[in-house]
């Protein structure tokens, strides 16, 4: 028996769709037959993703905007409904991190990472969910991280944001049932162009250590992340909601090959002065 993923004529919004995970998710949904609205801040990137989506024989719409800005999200939803008349899937993929220790993380940086990774998903889900409830069906997928449940020095603010996203996922699944399913996929190390370029190609030992620290001894495939998201959107997953699906190679600890040093008594005050 095989699982057939058929999303023909469905409509998906994918945030952060310009590259990496967002592009892979957009293409996986398109291959399953869904029309895709690609949303991100950089027009060049989402135009390219939309071109690839269209080449698969479905409709694509590229919309520029910032996931942390309410009016941009209002425009995204309105434009999607005007073009397609419905919204079936929302993939909250936008987010990222700034690597910084706890005592070096500013109040503003903490708030920014929470807004980018967590509040943005809340804001867009709130705008999309009424359409899903009204039409009697819909799926929301939040792209989370293993760091939401595994600590890593230098990733405190990001981890808090992703842990919050996981709770948001479970809460929305409860409140939007039975018509709308809500799940998250918590990613480990995934081979995206940015990871390959910035971390692995510049230092081969970095990638080797990440692989060694991952029980399945590999770095995840972005295209397979997309396929997993498509599965979670499909009827094959119609009894799955409120789940945080781990897609991390079995991580029990973070796979970063470095660790920030311990704080010492003489170093904890006036840390900004050390950078001048």
Notable traits:
globular; alpha/beta
Structural summary, described in words:
There is one protein chain. Strand 1 (11-15), helix 1 (20-31) and strand 2 (35-40) form a beta-alpha-beta unit. It is built from eight helices and nine strands. Helix 1 (20-31) crosses helix 8, helix 3 (70-84) packs parallel to helix 4 (107-135) and helix 4 packs parallel to helix 5. 43% of the residues lie in helices and 16% in strands. It is an alpha/beta fold. It has helices at 20-31, 43-54, 70-84, 107-135, 156-176, 193-200, 204-212, 222-233; strands at 11-15, 35-40, 60-64, 89-92, 138-145, 180-187, 190-191, 220-221, 244-247. The mean pLDDT is 92.
How do the helices and strands line up, and which of them pair or pack?
Elements: E1 11-15, H1 20-31, E2 35-40, H2 43-54, E3 60-64, H3 70-84, E4 89-92, H4 107-135, E5 138-145, H5 156-176, E6 180-187, E7 190-191, H6 193-200, H7 204-212, E8 220-221, H8 222-233, E9 244-247
Helix pairs in contact: 1-2, 1-8, 3-4, 4-5
Question: Summarize this, please?
Answer:
By secondary structure, this protein is an alpha/beta fold. The protein is 43% helix and 16% strand. The termini are far apart.
Number of helices, counting only DSSP H or I runs of 4 residues or more: 8
Roughly what is the average pLDDT, rounded to an integer?
92
The gyration radius over C-alpha positions equals 19 Å
The beta-strand count equals 9
Judged by helices, strands and strand pairing, the structural class is alpha/beta
Give the strand content.
Answer: 15-25%
Principal-axis shape equals globular
Q: How are the strands ordered across the major sheet?
A: 3-2-1-4-5-6-9
Q: Termini separation (Å)?
A: 64 Å
Give the low-confidence spans. Answer: none
Order of helices and strands: EHEHEHEHEHEEHHEHE
């Amino acid at each position: 028996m095989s699982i057939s993923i058929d999303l023909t004529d469905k409509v998906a919004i994918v945030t952060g769709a310009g590259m990496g995970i967002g592009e892979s998710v957009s293409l996986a949904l398109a291959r399953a037959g869904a029309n895709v609205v690609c949303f991100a801040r950089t027009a060049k990137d989402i135009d390219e993703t939309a071109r690839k989506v269209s080449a698969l024989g479905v409709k694509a719409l590229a919309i520029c905007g910032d996931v942390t800005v309410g009016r941009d999200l209002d425009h995204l939803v309105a434009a999607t409904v005007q073009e397609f008349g419905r919204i079936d899937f929302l993939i909250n993929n936008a987010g990222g991190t700034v690597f910084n220790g706890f005592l070096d993380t500013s109040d503003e940086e903490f708030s920014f990472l929470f807004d980018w990774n967590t509040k943005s998903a809340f804001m867009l889900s709130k705008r999309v969910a009424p359409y899903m409830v009204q039409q009697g069906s819909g799926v929301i997928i939040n792209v989370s991280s293993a760091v939401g449940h595994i600590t890593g020095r230098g990733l405190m603010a990001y981890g808090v944001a992703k842990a919050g996203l996981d709770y948001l996922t479970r809460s929305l699944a409860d409140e939007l049932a039975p018509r709308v399913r809500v799940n998250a996929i918590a990613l480990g190390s995934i081979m995206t162009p940015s990871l390959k370029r910035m971390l692995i190609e510049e230092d081969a030992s970095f990638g080797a250590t990440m692989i060694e620290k991952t029980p399945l001894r590999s770095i995840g495939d972005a295209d397979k992340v997309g396929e997993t998201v498509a599965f979670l959107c499909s009827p094959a997953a119609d009894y799955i909601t409120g789940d945080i699906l781990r897609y991390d190679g079995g991580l029990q600890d973070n796979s970063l090959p470095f660790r920030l040093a311990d704080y010492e008594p003489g170093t904890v005050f006036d840390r900004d002065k050390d950078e001048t």
